[in-house]
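As a representative case, the lines below give one protein's residues and fold tokens.
***
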Amino acid sequence: MSATTTLNIRVDAEVKRKAELICQELGMNLSTAINIFLRQTVRSDGIPFDVRLDRPNAQTLAAMDDVENRRNLFGPFHDTRSLMEALTEDA
């Protein structure tokens, strides 16, 4: 194994605390988890998961606009049967 080095990073205290709890449940410490991430980064020659902006697509934007303007709304439904009937009406 090659020599080790120290990595200093700044992270939000609450994020660190929550991550440590998750790592503990997984049976590892945060240092091990970060080492896993770094090894996977090297192995995959990039970030080992998708990194993208969380932007709604056109269909979702249209649905959000409908809700904000109270258009194309259905319900309320008082039971599952009436909901299912409304969903299958056009089928």
